[in-house]
Amino acid sequence: VEEKKIPVRDEGIESNKPRSMPNPSPYWGDELYWNDPADPAAMAMDSKGRVWISSRIRRDDNVPAFCKEGSDNPYAKLFPITRSVRQLSVFDPKTKTFKLIDTCAEAHHVVFAGDKDETIYMDGIRSETIGWVKTRVLDATGDLSASQGWCGAYFDINGNGKFDDGVDQRINMRGVYSVAPSTVDNSVWGAIPGVPGR
Questions:
Q1: Residue 195: pLDDT band by 50, 70, 90 thresholds?
Q2: Cα Rg for the chain, rounded, in angstroms?
Q3: How distant is the alpha carbon of residue 96 from its chain centre?
Q4: Where do runs of H (alpha helix) occur along the chain?
Q5: For the chain, which end, N or C, has fewer CB atoms within 10 Å of the first or last residue's CB respectively?
Q6: 134 forms bridges with which residues in the sheet?
Q7: Residue 79 clears pLDDT 80, i.e. is over it
Q8: Reported confidence tier of residue 164, pLDDT bands at 50, 70, 90
Q9: Which of 59, 18, 62, 55 is nearest to 38 (CA)?
């Protein structure tokens, strides 16, 4: 058994955890014993034995330019992203090293779809998108922009299966909690928290 600290790329990332103890701990008292800037949340293993972890690698507002409005990335044209709380880190147990993957969409829960691209899907509890990374494409090309995508929710008013700005109506999801790709029709499902949930 060994312990590995998940690295971050940006200096000065503060933990998302509370800054004070609401009640003293019987052991730690008022000491803040958890101050991890990576703030890992969930993990999934790929076919190579690597562990993909949702974790913070950068400041929330330091998203790549291809995520933002004005980019020629097709997903940014429809749903530009200006901040995300967690991205991905990948731990390779063979080399005992981490690789940091800067995603546009927030990564909270992560799950592999089992498709030929070994796509990992991510939900965004603080965002309005579901994101994904085609890990085989990323491994083969190293191209972050071409290997990832994301989408927001909308009503497909004209029923053509794609988002048409000015025709279809966007839906404010207020965050997606957990994702589950279907092996039946390749759809991806997510829960929207709240009462009532959706």
A1: confident
A2: 18
A3: 23
A4: 74-78, 135-141, 144-147
A5: N
A6: 119
A7: yes
A8: confident
A9: 55
3-class DSSP state for residue 140?
helix
Residue 196: asked if its preceding bond is cis (omega within 30°), the reply is yes
- Which residue(s) pair with 25 in the sheet? 29
Gap between the Cα atoms of 176 and 189, Å rounded: 9
Strands 177-181, 169-171: parallel, antiparallel or unpaired by DSSP?
Answer: unpaired
Residue 193 and residue 198: Cα distance in Å, rounded? 7
d(CA 105, CA 188): 15
pLDDT in tens, 32-62: 777 788 999 999 999 999 999 999 999 999 9
The pLDDT value given to residue 66 = 97
**In terms of DSSP bridges, do strands 110-112 and 119-123 run parallel, antiparallel, or are they unpaired?**
antiparallel
Rounded Cα distance between 112 and 180, Å, is 9
How many of the other CB atoms lie within 10 Å of CB of 75? 22
> Could you tell me which residues come within 8 angstroms of residue 31 by beta carbon, excluding any fewer than 6 positions away?
21, 25
Number of other CB atoms surrounding residue 96 within 10 Å: 9
Residue type, 158: N
Q: What is the pLDDT of residue 196?
A: 79
